[in-house]
Specification:
Helix content: over 70%
Order of helices and strands: HHHHHHHHH
Distance between the termini: 55 Å
Number of strands: 0
Strand content: under 5%
Length: 188
């Protein structure tokens, strides 16, 4: 705890993880600050509400802190924590299926004065339809779709996060996209 936050902010994740594994709480705090927003967004997209998402991330970060000495560096810290958060969310989803909200999906802006209220209503309805369709996907497919489409992860990264092979991830994404395309066909 001798370094100031500013000096720690300059370190890469690998050094911060090493320091945190040795008990440096400030180093772990920098990692949480650096990755916490993305982890919360992931949990929110998977669970559909902020209180459950915050709880899942908090539980995951507590687990990560406790398990840091076991972290071997086979994956990056962010991939490792994405996996912990994803697993926590999947466990929550197995217990109950909360409604999924896609408020983070940007709505297209209406250009020009013609039909703005109608366009806004249609966009809101389409967003709700997508949220419903996403909520109907099996949780493993939903996790893969969210990690790929909303978090921009590669197939290899998703495979590490969900603990499956790349072909399994590709298959889940294919099935998720096919289902979403069918359910959203009327919105094309």
């Amino acid at each position: 705890m001798g370094d100031t936050g500013g000096a720690l902010d300059e370190l890469d994740d690998g050094l911060l993880v090493a320091r945190a594994a040795e008990g440096d709480e400030d180093a772990f705090a920098v990692l949480v600050h650096r990755h916490g927003g993305a982890l919360l967004a992931l949990a929110y997209h998977m669970l559909g509400n902020l209180p459950d998402a915050e709880e899942a991330v908090q539980d995951a970060l507590i687990s990560a802190w406790r398990r840091l000495p076991e972290f071997r560096g086979d994956a990056t810290f962010s991939t490792w924590t994405y996996r912990i958060v994803t697993n926590r969310c999947l466990n929550v989803l197995r217990g109950h299926a909360p409604p999924v909200s896609l408020n983070a999906v940007p709505e297209p802006t209406a250009h020009g004065p013609e039909g703005e209220p109608a366009r806004a209503a249609e966009s809101e309805a389409a967003t709700q339809a997508l949220a419903q369709a996403l909520g109907n996907l099996p949780s493993a497919q939903r996790a893969c779709w969210i990690l790929r489409e909303l978090h921009g992860m590669s197939y290899a990264e998703i495979a590490q996060v969900v603990g499956e092979s790349e072909p399994t991830v590709r298959g889940r994404l294919f099935r998720a996209r096919r289902t979403l395309m069918k359910e959203m066909a009327s919105w094309r």
